[in-house]
Amino acid sequence: MPFDLSLLDKSPIAKGETASVALRRTIAYAQRAEALGYKRFWVAEHHNTHELASASPEILIASLAASTRSIRVGSGGVMLQHYSPYKVAENFNLLESLAPGRIDIGIGKAPGGLPLSTRALQSGYDQARRGDFASQLREFDAYLGAGNDQRQEGLAATPTPTTSSEKFLLGASVESAALAAELGWQFVFARHLNGDDVALASAVSTYRDLAQKTPIVALAVIADRDGNKARETAAGFTPIRVTIANGQSVTVGSEEQAAEFARQAGVTDYTTEKRQANVLAGNGGDIVAEIEVLADRFGIDEFILDLFNQGDSRLDAIALIADARDAAHTPRALSA
């Protein structure tokens, strides 16, 4: 079945590079994606991570919107637990006013970093008044204009844009799918973080039943002209789910990161579980063929690709995928 392709970028900083170089590449990456017909270009939020430059999606979105003309730009996602819902709503209303009809609001539940950065981001925050994530998201949604009766009288997130941003909840569970449906938001299943296709099927079914809409699925991808090279690289990725004694858990990239998470959380009692990476790897045709299988199996009509390619190879990789997509979707003339 036909599907749209979008991109997620973390602005990775290659060895020996500066953050400025990495951010300029992200802008060039978005411009290339626009020329190739990708639908959206999102940027992530990561903290205290020297290999990634994308600590503040809203600031980067403003630069991307100014550097492109038609592609939708947005966050994948802003980690709402750290911030005032009111301030985040102001940021996105300002972005929508700068680039009407082109801004996507993607909100995530994860911390976007390890405990040290989480504590720093939330210092001075009254945790007792903060409420749970669902409460924060409902408050944020009200400031954007939905459920105005829930807002304090006379309080609005200004400026007020003349168009509405599209709103997306990023998650990997049935609970997230149900919350997105409750609020009338679009739902993105993070398969690039949770490769459990049983969980994917349950979340897709829940969201489709409640919202009467189809979710988007985020995928981890490595693409290379040499498909075997891409597959060899992908074999080295093994996500680790680390859980500490209070039940808090997070997915990290290695056992070393799991141990660092526990150290920063101030605990020695923790467990780890190797998760299935489910990285799509191969040449452009291989990637498109695997996406087509997922599209047909789950009835998905849009995928967001998180490319694990390094440096400028990301620009080449999205061209390989776009060419293969176009070839697969071009009607073939019937022979006489």
Automatic annotation (TrEMBL):
GO cellular component: cytosol
KW Oxidoreductase (keyword) present: yes
InterPro entries for the chain: Bact_Lucif_Oxidored, CmoO-like, Luciferase-like_dom, Luciferase-like_sf
Enzyme Commission numbers on file: 1.14.13.107
Keywords per UniProt: Monooxygenase, Oxidoreductase
GO MF term list: limonene 1,2-monooxygenase [NAD(P)H) activity
Protein's UniProt keywords contain Oxidoreductase: yes
Luciferase-like domain sequence ranges: 15-294
Family label: To bacterial alkanal monooxygenase alpha and beta chains.
Designated name of the protein: Limonene 1,2-monooxygenase
Native source species: Devosia equisanguinis
Protein encoded by which gene: limB_2
